[in-house]
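Handout, page 2. Input:
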Amino acid sequence: MPSKETGQLRIVDSRTENAYLIPIHDNFIRAKDLMAITTPDPKGSDIEQKLTVLDNGFENVACMESEITLIDGNRGQIQYRGHPIQELFQNNDYEDVLYLLMWGKLPTQAEKLEVRRKFAAAMVPTKTVVDTIAAFPRNSDTYPMCLAGLCAFMSGDKVIANNRHTHKPSFHNNFEQADAAIIRTIAYYATTLALIHCHKRKLTFTNPDPNGSLIGNLLLMMGKTNKETGVGPDPEIQACLEKLWICYADHEMTNSTAGLLHAGSTLADPGSCAISALVCGFGPLHGGAIDLAYEALGKIKHPSFVPAYIEMVKSKKARLFGYGHRIYRTRDPRLSLIEELIEKNREKCDANPLLRVAFAIDKLANEDEYFVSRKLKANADLLGCFLYSALGFETDMITAIITLSRIPGGLAHWRETLDKPIKIWRPRQIYTGDRTDDVDTPGRQSLSSNEGPLKEKHGIQVRELNSGKSNKIPLKVKAILWAKSCFS
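Output:
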């Protein structure tokens, strides 16, 4: 729904005493409107300086208007396209939510089956992909293997590979091609994770079930099958992940989603955009914090050492990864949903030595005034990881699997941009270094007496001559210059 003007912000610039009325749209202003606020150049030239907004870390800057996910951090609410996350958690599975985020409605059974089959068809790896993963030592870090596997898949995808070699946008306003590429990208990444898991553990990769769900086929390909029959994915793990992934399906404009969209603004393909999101997602202050949290749990070793560790955190001699969230000023609504899943798997959680340490930390953190006063609680990503451990997933795969649950949400945001005006993201900066005032620049002292300043016409830089002759450039010459600038 397009935003409406709801008021005006009156600004008086104390430098000039000029007054401005900036439109307010649904409690936000457009940064571009602030460019109307100008001041004369302090150097005395006739160039006016436009006001710029500086916001290191984007703490109070919105970069998109979106209809996908609503987060109200003050009230502790999350909605996917108007559906409260609690309702979706109780009544739907991850496939439903993926479809809702991507295509704007809950699917029929026939629509779910159609998407399942498209995912499965793209999950069969080529020899190039298999060989790429097999080339890594089995003890390699998972992160570079994820990137390499996804790149190997993309190298054999003609539509994705050709995107950079066409002058016409491949996906913009071409939803049929975009949707097919989105599905393949998600399938490629799921298969990459399964191949990595199998390679590291010397397991046999199993091809997907043509009618299986995304999560079901991930488990099947990883070798996490029904313990009683040996056929099909483990039903207990699948049932848990179908609910858990709803909590991770999308979280509005996260760092990784912004990275994905930044890449997408260049008209990059969805696979490349997903890689941008993964690079962000594995960073130590983003999803990679989970790996650091598990490393800390491994060092603590036993619940009896937790009080000493907490004191180290309070004295800033150690860091408690996975606690606190920038968005929420109250309880994250996903936490109660994940806690519900933990209770359903309580026996498995209590049997895991690492989780006994984790729960001891969480108990103390919820009681200690230091954490309570700062509202530092385990975030949903960390809490959900306890379930992965309880279900038998090794720590080296957990962050990677979490990113798979999030990639479809990020690509839903990318899809949302495809019918919007094309605009590459190019933030500004505030220069704070040394500056020399008397530098020769085009249009100043470096010009000869018969040359004027450079001007841009139709995307071509043209220098106007100060002679009495006409400076009009023939159309044919313009065409030649244009062709050289575009294709040379």
